Amino acid sequence: MKTIINTTKAPAPIGPYNQAILSGNTLYTSGQIALDADTGELVMGSIQDETKQVMENLKAVLEAAEMTFNNVIKTSIFISDMHNFSQINEVYAQYFNVDTAPARETVEVANLPKFVNVEISMIAVK
Question: Could you name the domain of life of the organism this protein comes from (predicted)?
């Protein structure tokens, strides 16, 4: 059985998908970019600002599923420029305990939706 997870505290999907799917005790989030849920505008000031917005969007989706970053077991980070890795990682690290941080991959890609610089998805378990 799957349960659709959607919240107005994160940006509405911009295509034929949902913010997250809960299957049993496992939550699969769609990739989040730095869209502000209230304005629908991209947050593109600095790579740190952009990453913080992405993480806050993911936090809202996790909360809608009654979870926190402590439940996250795997993340996928897609970035447009590997030179931004350390700045993205600096913000990302603020959301996890280093000793219990999830598994992760970080991949540089040619382009992302709306030509943003970072997109992150997560898998979490209750």
Answer: Bacteria
Q: What one-letter code names the amino acid at 54?
A: V
* pLDDT tens-digit map of 8-37: 999 999 899 999 999 999 999 999 999 999
What is this structure's pTM?
0.97
CB contact at 8 A, 53 and 17: no
Partners of 3 in the β-ladder: 22
Confirm if 79 and 48 have CB atoms less than 8 A apart: no
Which CATH number, 3.40.50.2000, 3.30.1330.40, 1.10.1040.10, 3.40.50.1000, labels domain 2-125?
3.30.1330.40
Per-residue pLDDT reduced to its tens digit, 42-59: 999 999 999 999 999 999
